[in-house]
Design brief:
The complex is a heterodimer. In chain A, β1 and β2 form a beta hairpin. By secondary structure, chain A is mainly α. Chain A has a single domain, classed as MetI-like fold (Orthogonal Bundle), CATH 1.10.3720.10. Chain A contains 16 helices and two strands. In chain A, α5 packs antiparallel against α13, α6 runs antiparallel to α10 and α13 runs antiparallel to α16. Chain A has a two-stranded antiparallel ribbon. The radius of gyration of chain A is 25 Å and the shape is globular. In chain B, α4 packs antiparallel against α9. In chain B, about 75% of the residues lie in helices and about 0% in strands. The longest helix of chain B is centred in the C-terminal third of the chain and has 40 residues. Chain B is globular. Classes of the chains: A mainly alpha, B mainly alpha.
C-alpha cells in the first residue's frame, strides 16, 4: 500500500488542477465498493436485523404485536419437537461436515502433491458436479436409495439381496450421504489452497532430519494445512444445518430438520415470530458449534508440532 | 507395474482419487441414463431406449413458461451481480481503504449462510414493506447470492493485473475512466464473461430463494419441485434435469476456459512489461 501511494504522490503533485480527494486511494476504493456494500447492507444485514426483531415479538393472526417477549425462544428451546429438530440438525451438520472433510482431504492432498501439470483439470473435474442443480443432485440420490431404486434393484439383480433394503431411504443417514456428496467440492477447494501454501522445503527438512513419510505428514503437512481444514469444516457445517431440500426429499419422517420447521412457520403455520426465533436460535447454536470445532482443530494442530 | 505407476502417480492415493471422482459423478449420471429408459420408474435392469420423455417436454406449457421465467431471472441476476462484482472486485484488488476486509467479508457472507436464513429474512422485509412477491424479488435475492461467485471469478481475473499499465496510461494523459475503458476493460473481459456465465448458472439452478420469494410465477427448479410430488412425472423431470445438466456443463466449461485465458493474459502481459 505504502509503496504504491508514495509512488503516485509525486505524480499527483506534478499534475495541478486535480481534486486531492479523488486522488486519494481510500476515497476511490470506498467509492467503488459502496454500491455493492450498500446492496449487501440493505438486502442482507437489514433483513437479518428485522428477523432478530421479529423473534422478540408475537403474532395474533395477521397483526404483529411489538411488545418485547422471550416466549418464542422459550418455545424454540423447550418444546420437544423443536428441540429434537435442532439437535438432529446439529448432529447431521456435524457428521456431514466431519465426513466431508475427512473424505476430501486425501483428494486435496493428491491434487496438490501428485497433480503435476494436471492440477487445473482435476479441480475442474471435481467442481463440475457441484455446479449442477442442487435439487437434481438430491433427486438423483432419491432415485438411487429408493425402495424400488437403483441400488436395491441393482443388488437384487446381482442376487446379493433377496428383498429391497428399506433402511436406505427416509432417515438421517440418507440425508448425511446426500449432503456429503453435495458439499464435496466446497471442502476440497479450501484444503487444496492451504496445502498449496505448505512450504515443500519444510517437508524435505523433516525427512532429512529422520522423519518417515507418515511422521513428516502428521507433524508438518497436516498442522500447516489446518487453516484449510477449518474453513472447509465451517463452509460445510454452517449452511448444511439449515438445509431444506435434502431432508424434504430423502429425509422422510426421521430425517426432518429445523429448516423444514422454519419454513412451516412462514407457510402453513404462519407464525413469523416463532419462525424468526427458530432461525436465530439455529444460527447462534451452529456458530457456537463451529467455534468449538475451530478451537479443537487449532489446539490439535499446535499439539501435533 | 511401473507403467501403472507412471499413469497414476501417488500409489493408493490415486486409486482413492479415481474412486472419489466416481462417487461424485455416478449419482449425477443416473439422471441421463434413466431419462432415456422406457420404464416409468428408475430401476435396473434397463428396459429399453426411448426419446419419448424428451418429446413430451415442449408440449408442456407450464414448463415453457417456467423456462422463460428462469431465463429472464438468470439474465437479470447475472448482469446485475456482475456489475456489482466488477465494482467491488476492482476496489478490493486495486485500492487499499479502511474497512476493506470487513466489507469484503460482508459481501461474501451469503456464501456461508444457510440459504433459508437469507430467504426468510428477505421475505420478512418484503412482506413488511407491503411489496408483492414476483420474479423481481427473486432477482433481488439471486443477485445477493450470485455476487460472491462473481467476486471470486473477477478478483482472480483482476489480480496479477499489472498496475504499471494503468499508470502508464494515466501518465500519457488518459482520464481515470478512459484508462479503465481502454486499458483495464479489454484485459478483464474474459473474467467478466466468465462471471456472467457462472452467475447465470447459479441463478438457473437456485431453488430455495426462488421458492420463498416468488409469487405465482415458477422458475425451472420450482417447476421441477412441483413435479416431484407425482411419481408418474419422474421420467419427464429426469429428462428436463438432463437438459439443465448439459446446459450448466456447457456454460461452465466456457466460463472456465475464459477464466484461464484471462489469468494467462494478465500474467503474461504483466511479465512482459514488469
Amino acid at each position: 500500500m505504502t509503496a504504491a501511494a508514495e509512488g503516485s504522490a509525486p505524480l499527483a503533485a506534478s499534475r495541478p488542477g486535480r481534486k486531492p480527494l479523488l486522488q486519494s486511494e481510500s476515497a476511490q476504493g470506498l467509492a467503488l465498493i459502496t454500491p455493492t456494500f450498500l446492496y449487501a447492507l440493505v438486502l442482507l444485514v437489514l433483513p437479518i436485523l428485522v428477523v432478530i426483531a421479529h423473534s422478540f415479538w408475537t403474532q395474533h393472526y395477521l397483526t404483529i404485536d411489538r411488545t418485547f417477549t422471550l416466549e418464542n425462544y422459550r418455545i424454540a428451546l423447550t418444546e420437544p419437537i423443536y428441540r429434537d429438530l435442532l439437535w438432529r440438525s446439529l448432529y447431521i451438520s456435524l457428521v456431514t461436515s466431519v465426513a466431508t472433510v475427512v473424505l476430501a482431504y486425501p483428494i486435496a492432498y493428491y491434487i496438490s502433491f501428485h497433480g503435476g501439470h494436471r492440477k487445473g483439470l482435476w479441480l475442474f473435474l471435481i467442481t463440475i458436479p457441484f455446479w449442477t442443480s442442487y435439487l437434481l443432485r438430491v433427486m438423483s440420490w432419491k432415485v438411487i436409495l429408493g425402495y424400488n431404486g437403483v441400488l436395491n434393484s441393482g443388488l437384487m439383480g446381482l442376487g446379493i439381496i433377496d428383498e429391497p433394503i428399506t433402511a436406505l431411504l427416509y432417515n438421517s443417514n440418507s440425508v448425511i450421504i446426500t449432503l456429503v456428496h453435495a458439499w464435496a467440492a466446497f471442502a476440497i477447494l479450501p484444503i487444496f489452497v492451504s496445502l498449496e501454501k505448505v512450504d515443500r522445503t519444510l517437508i524435505e527438512a523433516a525427512k532429512d532430519l529422520g522423519d518417515g513419510p507418515l511422521r513428516s505428514f502428521l507433524r508438518v503437512t497436516l498442522p500447516l494445512s489446518a487453516p484449510g481444514v477449518i474453513s472447509a469444516l465451517l463452509i460445510v457445517m454452517i449452511p448444511t444445518v439449515g438445509d431444506y431440500v435434502t431432508p424434504k426429499l430423502v429425509g422422510g419422517k426421521d430425517g426432518v430438520m429445523i429448516a423444514n420447521a422454519i419454513q412451516a412457520q412462514f407457510g402453513k403455520a404462519s407464525n413469523w415470530p416463532l419462525g424468526a426465533a427458530l432461525s436465530v436460535t439455529t444460527m447462534i447454536v451452529v456458530t457456537a458449534m463451529a467455534g468449538a470445532a475451530v478451537l479443537i482443530i487449532r489446539r490439535a494442530a499446535r499439539l501435533a508440532r | 507395474m511401473s507403467g501403472l505407476k507412471r499413469l497414476l502417480p501417488g500409489g493408493w492415493l490415486s486409486v482413492y482419487a479415481v474412486l472419489y471422482v466416481a462417487f461424485l459423478y455416478v449419482p449425477v449420471l443416473f439422471l441421463p441414463v434413466f431419462s432415456v429408459n422406457t420404464a416409468a420408474t428408475p430401476k435396473f435392469p434397463l428396459s429399453g431406449f426411448t426419446w419419448k420423455w424428451y418429446e413430451g417436454l415442449p408440449r408442456t406449457p407450464e414448463l415453457l413458461n417456467a423456462a422463460w421465467n428462469s431465463l429472464i431471472v438468470g439474465l437479470s441476476a447475472s448482469v446485475l451481480s456482475t456489475v456489482f462484482g466488477i465494482l467491488a472486485a476492482r476496489a478490493i484488488t486495486r485500492y487499499r481503504f479502511p474497512g476493506r476486509r470487513p466489507i469484503n467479508g460482508l459481501i461474501m457472507a451469503p456464501l456461508v449462510l444457510p440459504e433459508i436464513i437469507v430467504a426468510i429474512s428477505m421475505l420478512l422485509v418484503i412482506l413488511q414493506l407491503g411489496l408483492s412477491l414476483s420474479l423481481f424479488t427473486v432477482v433481488l435475492g439471486h443477485v445477493l447470492v450470485c455476487i460472491p461467485y462473481s467476486m471470486t471469478v473477477l478478483t482472480s481475473g483482476f489480480e496479477g493485473f499489472d498496475r504499471s499499465l494503468e499508470e502508464a496510461s494515466a501518465d500519457l494523459g488518459e482520464s481515470a475512466f478512459g484508462t479503465f475503458r481502454r486499458v483495464t476493460l479489454p484485459m478483464v473481459t474474459p473474467a467478466i464473461i466468465s462471471s456472467l456465465l457462472v452467475s447465470f448458472t447459479i441463478s438457473l439452478d437456485e431453488f430455495i430463494i426462488a421458492f420463498f420469494l416468488t409469487g405465482t410465477e415458477a422458475t425451472l427448479p420450482i417447476y421441477i419441485w412441483g413435479q416431484l410430488r407425482f411419481a408418474a412425472k419422474l421420467p419427464g423431470v429426469l429428462a428436463l434435469g438432463t437438459l439443465l445438466l448439459v446446459a450448466s456443463f456447457i456454460l461452465l466449461s466456457i466460463a472456465e476456459v475464459l477464466r484461464r485465458r484471462a489469468a494467462r493474459r494478465t500474467q503474461s502481459e504483466g511479465g512482459l512489461y514488469a
